[in-house]
Amino acid sequence: MRFPELARRFLELEPRLAEGPEKEALSLLHAMLQELWREVGARPGEREGLEALRNLYKKAPKMEAPRVAPGLSVGERAPDFALPDAQDNLVRLSDFRGRPVVLVFYPLDWSPGCSQQLDLYQAELPEFERRNAVLLGISVDSIYCHGAFAFARGLTFPLLADFHPKGEVARRYRVWREEDGFSERALFVVDPEGVIRYAHVSPYLHHIPPIEELFQALDALRRE
Amino acid sequence: MEPVVLYGTSWCAQTQLLRRLLERLGVPYRYVDLEAHPEVHPTLRFLTGGRLSHPVVYVGGEVLVEPTPAELERALWRRGYLWW
């Protein structure tokens, strides 16, 4: 194939180009060429409809504020709760006693970090299942919003509505952001006896901790 | 064959998603953390039309800016990194 060779020569020339409009024009031309690949390769309709909805977050307002709430600590008992999922089934933390539970507090459905974070967990669902872990997403969105969000993204694990009284469970876990009216991005691994064994509140709202940390926390529980 | 290179950050969910996809597909790749390697920023900006976004994946001469998993897989097929 000739393409990789041409691309390599193009790349090698970059450090020798003087800064200025000519270099910027070449950069833009190169980026346009790359975007063409994306468009040519897509199946008809692939970038419209539901896919466009799924990708709305890429143009949405950013959510990058620093952490304000500390979250509960490792070793503390995880407060029990009863919250409805998208089908209005009441889900209690204590329903899962005997299994590890991963609580995923996230700010809002459809927002940039949350969409990507939940996509990642959905793609890795077999890894959670292999560890017998239950995955529960929690935000202040309504059950109907959760239903639409989960459908659009193909999320199959429960999303719970901490909707009324708004953010009550997030407050109990000390991850509530009063000024914003939504929670921190926070993860808790609760062991089969109901004790928090891993806790992480993102230092910035758009930061998602490496998923390997979660798997390590779950694996540590299994080794005990 | 040139190695696939993935530029990203450790806290970016999309970076993590694509890294794990490459690992599942068995495609060897080099990971460059953009926070640990600011020296690559100018070249990356040049290749992406001025925007330093993440993840960016270099696949046999193609520069994919924040690709979906499907877009990355298609580029891997197109450039001969997948063949079964």
- Please count the helical segments of chain B: 3
The biggest sheet of chain A amounts to: 5 strands, mixed
**CATH topology descriptor of chain B:** Glutaredoxin
User: What is the string of SSEs of chain A from the N terminus onward?
Assistant: HHHEEEHHEHEHEEEEH
| Helical coverage of chain B, percent range | 25-40%
Characterize the overall form of chain A.
Answer: elongated
Rg of chain B, Å, rounded: 12 Å
CATH third-tier fold name of the largest domain in chain A: Glutaredoxin
Structural class of chain B: alpha+beta
Give structural notes.
The complex is a heterodimer of chains A (224) and B (84). In chain A, the strands form three sheets. A five-stranded mixed β-sheet of chain A has the order 5-4-3-8-9. By secondary structure, chain A is an alpha/beta fold. Chain A contains eight helices and nine strands. Chain A has two domains: 3-59, no CATH class; 82-223, 3-Layer(aba) Sandwich (Glutaredoxin). By secondary structure, chain B is an alpha+beta fold. Chain B has helices at residues 13-25, 41-47, 69-78; strands at residues 4-8, 29-33, 56-59, 62-65. The relative contact order of chain B is 0.23. Chain B has a single domain (4-78), classed as 3-Layer(aba) Sandwich (Glutaredoxin), CATH 3.40.30. Chain B has a four-stranded mixed β-sheet with strand order 2-1-3-4, with helices on one face. In chain B, a hairpin with a 2-residue loop joins strand 3 and strand 4 (62-65). The longest helix of chain B has 13 residues, at 13-25. The interface between A and B is large, with 42 and 34 residues. Chain A: Pfam families: AhpC-TSA. Chain A: This is Peroxiredoxin. Chain A: Residues 72-223 form the Thioredoxin domain.
